[in-house]
Write the C-alpha cells for this entry.
Amino acid sequence: MNKTLLISFISLFLAQFIKIFTIKPFSLASIIGSGGFPSSHSSFVATLTTLIGLKHGFNSDLFTIVLIFSMIVTYDAGGVRKAVGDQANVLNNLINHLNVKNIERDPELLKEDLKELIGHTPLEVFAGVILGVSIALISFYYFY
C-alpha cells in the first residue's frame, strides 16, 4: 500500500468535505464540485509534497520535482481557473441581460449558466496548502 498516495487522497477528500459547510447555499453537491474553501487541489499537492520531503529529504531531486508540480497546480487553481470563473460570471450576466431585452437565442447554444465557481481565491489556495501540510505532518509522525 502506498501510504503517501493514500494520505494525499484523504487530504483531498477532507478538503472536499469541508466545502459542504463553507459554500453558500449549503449543498451536498459541493462535495464533488470544484472551487470553494479550501482548495482540495492545493491540499492534495501540499500533502504529497510535504510527505515526499519528509520521507526522501527536502534536498532530494524527487522533492524538487514534486514541489514544482505542486506550484503549477496551486497557480492553476488560484490563477487560471479563477480567471475562467470570473469570465463565466461576466458571460452569464451578459446573457441574462440580453434575455431581459427579449432577444431570442438558440436554446442549444447554451442550455444553462456557465459554472462560475471553478477556481480559488488566494485565501482558499492558502487554506488548502495549510490543511495539506498539517495533514502530512500529523500523518507522517503517526504512520511512518
The chain has a mean pLDDT of 83. The helical segments are 3-22, 40-56, 61-100, 122-143. The longest helix spans residues 61-100. Residues 77 and 119 are 5 Å apart (CA to CA).
